[in-house]
Amino acid sequence: MILVTGATGNVGRCIVRRMTAAGHQVKALTRNPGAVFDGAEVVVGDLDEQRTLPGCLEGVNKAYVMGMGPRTAEQVATFVHAAAGLRHIVLMSSLSVELERGGVVARWHREAEGAVRKSGIPWTFLRPGVFMSNALQWAASIRAEGVVRSVTGDTPVAPVHPDDIAAVAVTALSSTGHEGRAYALTGPERTSPSAQTRLLGDLLERRLTFEAVPAEAGVRSMTAFGISAEEAEVSVHSAREDNLFGIPLTTIHDLTGLAPRTFRDWAAENLNAFR
Ligand SMILES: NC(=O)c1ccc[n+]([C@@H]2O[C@H](COP(=O)([O-])OP(=O)(O)OC[C@H]3O[C@@H](n4cnc5c(N)ncnc54)[C@H](OP(=O)(O)O)[C@@H]3O)[C@@H](O)[C@H]2O)c1
């Protein structure tokens, strides 16, 4: 039995779908008792509430685990504490941990990886770059004003399809030889936010305007969330550097045999969100 946390999320929901389609028994963890998953058992749990986890973990031998935002490391530590005895954990981490100065997100994920290492449970770390689904943050302003405001400037990235990350997670959870491995995952093409904007405009048959939000505005919005000015500076500038995030890797194909999808593929699948 495999437990999928973040089961209603971009990656988790694809893992549930792929696992159940392959005939695995799956428990889908959510805080929402009304959530419905085809072929999976819904378990209601909250990674901020340790007492909710033992019931979710009954009969489970492997898990996909992810934490959210500033509570990432605490949530992952809470999970592994409750999950002692599991045979394998696949952890959602981030490519930022491989950057020398990855900022606050890198710190959250380094600490989460540390908690999993310390647990003694065999692990695989997924370290994806920018998710294609981040473009959904542009949906409201595209619908209302035909404008994309990019908080990461116009730095090129090699965005990755959430379902391609899910395919790697499923491979790691359902075959051997992935324990103790950390997989850097990016998509197949280098593209910039302004190029993504043009592509969305073409698909929507609408003229879209691209605006790069100044770095200072990004720093201000992070400090408003309680992140220190120093960490916010490093994070915002790291997100605007042309670094590892912009290098297409072959990991997804190497591990799954699947051709990773392009931003165009993702945009065509999700076009209704922008209409
Ligand atoms: N976006 C990127 O470019 C990027 C890049 C690298 C790594 N990452 C990492 O990927 C992860 C996000 O993955 P995603 O996009 O698939 O997630 P997502 O779509 O943002 O979904 C978040 C999920 O977390 C669940 N959740 C939130 N708080 C929870 C809590 N206290 N207890 C239990 N579940 C909780 C929500 O479930 P319910 O509401 O149903 O409970 C939801 O399913 C983060 O760890 C992020 O740092 C993201």
Key terms for this structure?
275 residues, alpha/beta, Rossmann fold, 7-stranded parallel sheet, two-stranded parallel ribbon, 11 helices, globular, binds NADP nicotinamide-adenine-dinucleotide phosphate
Task: Provide an overview of this structure.
The structure is a single chain. The protein is an alpha/beta fold and 275 residues long. The chain has one domain (2-274): Rossmann fold, CATH 3.40.50.720. The protein is built from eleven helices and nine strands. The chain has helices at residues 12-21, 53-57, 72-82, 103-119, 139-145, 162-174, 193-204, 215-224, 229-239, 251-256, 263-269, and strands at residues 2-4, 26-30, 41-44, 62-65, 88-92, 123-128, 147-150, 181-185, 209-212. The strands form two sheets. It has a seven-stranded parallel β-sheet, with helices on both faces. A two-stranded parallel ribbon has the order 7-9. β1, α1 and β2 (26-30) form a beta-alpha-beta unit. α1 (12-21) packs across α6 (162-174), α3 runs parallel beside α4 and α8 crosses α9 (229-239). The radius of gyration is 19 Å and the shape is globular. The mean pLDDT is 97. It binds NADP nicotinamide-adenine-dinucleotide phosphate. NADP nicotinamide-adenine-dinucleotide phosphate binds next to loops. NADP nicotinamide-adenine-dinucleotide phosphate (NAP) binds at residues 5-12, 30-32, 35, 46-48, 66-68, 72, 92, 94, 128, 130-131, 134. This is NAD-dependent epimerase/dehydratase family protein. Residues 6-174 form the NAD(P)-binding domain. It comes from Nonomuraea mesophila.
